[in-house]
Amino acid sequence: MEKRSWAFLLVLLFFSLSFSGCYYFAAKNQIKVAQSLVSDLKSQGGDKLVPYEYCSAETFLEISRMEFNQNDYKHAKGFADRSKSAAEAGLSEVKMKK
Fold it and tell me: How far apart are CA 41 and CA 87, in angstroms?
C-alpha cells in the first residue's frame, strides 16, 4: 500500500509542476503580444484618438506584469489577454478613424 501512495504522490507532483510551467510560458508569451499591440496602438496615435482603449490596454498590461512578477501566472495571462483585446479594439477604431 505504501508503494501505491508514493506512486500517486509522484504523479500528482509531476502534473502540478507541468501545469504551473504551462501558465508561466503562456503568460510570458501573452505579455509580449500585448506589449507589442500596445506599442503599435501608441505609435498610430491611439493615446489621442482612442484614449479609453489605450488606457485600458496599458493598465491591463501593467497589472499583468505585476501579477507575473508575483508568480501568479494564471492571473497574469488573464490580464494580458484583456490588454491584448483592448489594444486590438483600439487599433481597429484607429483604422476606422483614419
Answer: 7
